[in-house]
Structures are given as C-alpha cells and as structure tokens.
Design brief:
It is a single chain. The protein is an alpha/beta fold. Helix content is 42%, strand content 16%. The protein has two domains: 204 residues, 3-Layer(aba) Sandwich (Rossmann fold); 121 residues, NAD(P)-binding Rossmann-like Domain (Rossmann fold), CATH 3.40.50.720. The strands form four sheets. A six-stranded parallel sheet has the order 3-2-1-4-5-7, sandwiched between helices. Strands 6-8-12 form a three-stranded parallel sheet. Strand 1, helix 1 and strand 2 form a beta-alpha-beta unit. The protein is globular and about 60 Å long. The two termini are 33 Å apart. 2-amino-3-ketobutyric acid binds next to strand 9. The site of 2-amino-3-ketobutyric acid has 12 residues, from strand 9.
Length: 335
C-alpha cells in the first residue's frame, strides 16, 4: 500500500480525518501536512508522520509526494467562504492554485487518487430551475461567492482529470459537497459562514449564552456532524470506481436548521448539562448573511446514496448532546 497525505491537517476536517485514517490504515501510513500557521493537534503531531507544507509551493509539494511515496491525497486545505470574500487573492492562491498544484503534482508523481471536498457553496442561485429545498445533485450552478466559484471550478477539474482520454492524465478525483460541519474537537472557524452553529454550542457550554449570532433567526442551512463527514470522505474514497457516475460533486445531507431552531435544541439538550435559561442574541453580519442567503436550505443526496451507499448516522439532537458532552469533559480536562 502507498501512503496517504492529508493537507490542511490542522484544520477542522483534517484534525478528525487524520486520526480516523491512521486508525484504519496504520499510523505510519498517513502523513499529516500543515502549513504551520495553525499548530497541529497533539494527537496528530505525536502519533505519526508530520510535514510542513504550503500548498501554493509546487516544488515543495512535488518533493513531499516523491519522498513519502504517496498514492492517495486527501486535500483538505482551503479558505472558507467569509475569508475568501474578504481576501480574494488569498482565496485564489489557496482554493485555485493550491488545488491545481495538488492535481498536477499528483500526475507527475503517480498519485492515483485525490479526495477533495466541495461545498453547498457550489450551488445556486435558486429559482424555477434550481429549487432551494432538496436541491438536486445535477443542476445549473452559478454561485455568487468567490468560495462557491472556486468549488464549482474544483468540481469541473475533478471531471476533467478523472475522464481525460490521455492515459497520463488519468487521475481518480472524488469529492462531496459538504454542508456546514459541526465539531467540538477544534475551535469554531471565523473564516466560515456556517460556523455560527459551532460558536453557539461552544458558547452555551462555556458561558451559558450566545450573544453574537451573525445570521438572521430564520436563515436555514444544511449541516452535518463531523463523524458523518469523515465517514463520507472515507466511504467515497473506498467506493468501487465502476459504480460512480459523478466525481467531485456528490451532495451529502444530514439535517437543516435555522439559528432559532438550533437555539431551541441547545436549550433542550443543554438542560441535561446544567445550562439553564440559554439566551441567544444577534449581531448581524451583512457579508455572512449575503453568503448564507445564496445557499441551499437542504440538498438531495440520492446520487451519493445509490452510487456509494451514503447514509448519515447523526441526528441534530444527538449531535448537540455529543458535542456538549465532549466540551464539558474538555473543560474539566478529562479528555
Ligand atoms: C463555510 O461556511 O464557508 C463552510 C462551507 C459551507 O463550505 N463551512
């Protein structure tokens, strides 16, 4: 077996993907790459091989692939929606150039497979042709955010590289369109739009209230718990290529909610953790609101279900319970 490289190993997805892959394929076989800007989690840094890698540095990437005999890359580094809107050049460098480097360096170094996440941001705008509810997998895509455009581009590259007639360009590129991801393991990421949900749950546990909700009370977005997201990536990577009719653009869904609805669940579940009288207040952010308003309410994931057996395990209530349980244990230094 060749080795696996995970870029963005210090990020939200990478921090949980690396331990899951190491558990499955062996600690020595999974190399965690971080840019150095955010430190890697201790369990990642201490349990297996680690390299420092700036994804915009093509020669360093080539060197790393050759040196470690990589045959699969999980390319998780990316700049999320709010930051890509605020800093378009950085967004271009990370989201376009970074992915292009990964794809070209993979061909040059005999990497067989690249797994790269897309996002709900790749969908829209909505209207007669493209419903906002249960948005189909295959539909017109003209997103209005820099991040969303980069994601559409990544999906197109996945088709291009996976279906190229020239044998030398035949790379197997796969990916899912992630909704907002909920996680307790890493701190909420201010670069995103959906992370208000993580902030709400963290603040409920730490302070008993959440006073800075950037989105309106009725803004509905699709979301998912990180263990389901990790399962989606690994199951898609392992799926039989012959059964796959798509490449980098599978809708995957778990649940959808508004800030008001999440606050209701936080109140209900929080009472089991001694959080009484949970309050939410708003500090609306026009940029995040514009981004969220351009995204789907919910997604139709029947292609993922039928082509590679996708099915989420976590309901919203169980997610909030599990996050609070772990955050309380973390606060008490039990984990
Ligand atoms: C973001 O909010 O930018 C991301 C996403 C939905 O891709 N979580």
């Amino acid at each position: 077996m060749g080795k696996i490289l995970v870029t963005g190993a210090a990020g939200q997805i990478g921090s949980e993907l690396v331990p899951a892959l190491r558990k499955k394929y062996g600690y020595e076989n999974v190399i965690a790459a971080g840019s150095g800007r955010t430190p890697l989690a201790r369990d990642i840094a201490e349990a297996g091989p680690v390299i420092s890698l700036d994804i915009t540095d093509y020669s360093r990437l080539q060197e790393a692939l050759a040196e470690h005999g990589i045959d699969t890359i999980y390319h998780m580094s990316g700049l999320l929606s709010k930051s890509a809107e605020d800093n378009r050049r950085l967004g271009f460098n990370v989201n376009y150039l970074g992915l292009f480097n990964v794809l070209e360096a993979s061909i040059a170094n005999n990497v067989g497979k690249v797994i790269v996440p897309s996002s709900i941001a790749a969908l829209g705008p909505f209207g007669m042709e493209t419903p906002r509810q249960n948005t189909p997998n295959d539909t017109r895509q003209r997103p209005r955010t820099m991040y969303g455009m980069a994601k559409v581009n990544g999906e197109l590259w996945a088709d291009y590289y996976s279906e190229h007639e020239d044998q030398e360009v035949n790379l197997d590129v796969r990916g899912v369109r992630f909704p907002g991801l909920l996680t307790w393991k890493t701190d909420p990421n201010p670069a995103g739009t959906t992370d208000y949900a993580n902030y709400m749950i963290f603040d409920a546990v730490r302070k008993g209230r959440y006073l800075e909700c950037p989105l309106g009370a009725d803004t509905r977005l699709p979301m998912m718990y990180m263990p389901d997201a990790i399962k989606a990536l690994i199951n898609l990577a392992e799926a039989d290529r012959k059964r796959l009719e798509h490449h980098g653009d599978y809708n995957v869904a778990a649940y959808s909610f508004t800030p008001d609805e999440l606050a209701g669940v936080v109140r209900k579940v929080g009472s089991q953790f001694g959080i009484s009288d949970f309050q939410m207040e708003f500090k609306l952010d026009p940029v995040r609101q514009r981004i969220a308003d351009s995204w789907a309410d919910s997604m139709d994931d029947s292609a993922a279900r039928s082509e590679w057996g996708w099915k989420p395990d976590w309901s919203l209530e169980r997610t909030v319970y599990d996050m609070m349980d772990n955050l309380v244990k973390k606060q008490e230094h039990k984990i």
